[in-house]
Design a protein that fits this description.
two-stranded antiparallel ribbon, 10 strands, alpha+beta, Cyclophilin, 22% strand, 208 residues, globular, 4 helices
Length: 208
Amino acid sequence: MKLIEIKTSKGSMIARLYDETPIHRDNFLKLAEEGYYNGTLFHRVIHAFMIQGGDPNTKNAATMGMAGTGGPGYTLEAEIKPQFFHKKGALAAARQGDAVNPQKRSSGSQFYIVQGNSYPQDQLNAFEKRMQMGKAGFSWTDEQKETYANLGGTPHLDSEYTVFGEVIKGLDVIDAIAMVPTRPGDRPAEDISIEVNIIDTDGAEYGL
């Protein structure tokens, strides 16, 4: 198990990286060890949806107009697994759209953390039926539906993006960042800095 700390100017989050998504886990750890994320910003923030970061272009605030286009020069093979879904706190890889990226390959560095909304069961059931029309065999477990109903998330993103971790401490920090006023293009009106550190722990203190 690997844990990371995402320190921001709005507080710190502790996240667990899934061993079942080793490509994304190892890539994120490699970049963190190199200090790749340190000094970057959350460049795209949409309240009740998600907060996005990991673009090296944002290390220089003057290049914020280019935010969303930067990366390490490679993409990652998708590791989309049904047990990892877009509940609040989910850590997932950003990517280009299907029109230019039908394999759903992930950005080499850009990620987002879900805030989302809560959904009543009848709305989730309707979502599920619509998604099944384009994705044969798609379904949520009762536990996943209960999580979306109580904790919240962004269910319409499931099976489309690789979820490779989750925030286990600091969900309130996601809310604080998501509340920041934004400029056109969903850029925060104030800089929200990022520093990523790898935590050397067996996870016992976090109940893992």
